[in-house]
Amino acid sequence: MVASSRKPLLPAHELEKRHQDPAKPFFNDSSYFFGRSAEGAAMVFRFGFRQNQPPEYWLKIKIPTFGTIQIQQLSGAYDQDFAYGNLKFTCLDIGKRWQLTYSGPVTCFGQQPVSAHASFSFIFEATKPLVDFSHSIEPWTMAKTLAAEPWTRDFFAKLQEIRQVHYEQVGRVQGVVNIGGQDYPLDMVSVRDHSFGVRRWNTWQRHVWLTGVLDDGEAFNLSMIRYSFMPQNDLKAGFLTRGDTFDPVQNSSPFDVFDPQNQAPPQFALDLAIGGQTRQTFRLEANVEDAFDFWMGDQAYFIREGIARFQLGNRQGLGIAEFGFNPQTYAVPPFHY
To answer: Which of 74, 107, 131, 273: CA 20 to 30 A from 315?
Structure first.
């Protein structure tokens, strides 16, 4: 049933567009980029264009020789492009290259917050093909989860509601940040993410999104989410790249591996079962060195973007350990990195 419900693969030029659906009031088009360097630089950019509501937006950059900057306030028009105010994501080459630009006020966090003017231009260059999750994961991974649930009309209605198009791509992002006339060049490994469909933050109980680029250029992803209408079972997906192909995640350790009193732990380890030709279980270890915090959906959901170092088996890597949870169910963890 899961395999037969897959929609045809969209061509790259359709995937790369911003999508809207006026008939669905909770429709959301989310476009995200992260960057991470071995020297400690990190960035997280995101647009979330919501139907009939102002966009969600993230912009935080950590510069080792300076500190952290974040956007203050965006305003203005948001039509068909990935743009709002002075922040813009521009596709230069479909499925391969994007430009990220901004010019305007930021808050600089050092010994104390101060305001400044900043501008930047980054180029994301893909090193791997697009990974469309609907066609790059094993149907059995989701099927086993759905089979454990009581099947009702309401359950299947909610499943239809959460169906999204979701794809990711591994690459490298390079550019220069200018703050008050001073240039800071940055060169980072990167993963970008684009998804569109209905998203109701208040139906999310918790999730984890772990993604990293390994020192040999390969990359991995693990996504787990628990919905309010599936309180005992978690949907899982992910991949491990192998050249220009992808081996799917078959299974992983459950949410129980994380300390229940700390939903965004600074260190953790879990098992990751990979299918495809490798058919191997890896130990994934993470050390979160810093983090960026964000609230979603008018504070209906909390997300912590952990700036992490990973070890997958015997390979090292850099990436993001993203933890999110509903504050109605889980207490917001203290920031202690």
So the answer is: 131
Buried/exposed 37-47: b ≥16 CB within 10 Å, e otherwise: beeebbbbbbb
H or E stretch at 160: helix 153-161
Give me 88's structure tokens. 């813009």
Question: Per the structure block, which two tokens stand in for 165?
Answer: 């198009």
What are phi and psi for residue 250, nearest 5 degrees?
-95, -35
What's the distance, CA 51 to chain centroid? Answer: 20
Could you tell me if 1 and 11 are in contact, meaning their C-beta atoms sit under 8 angstroms apart? no
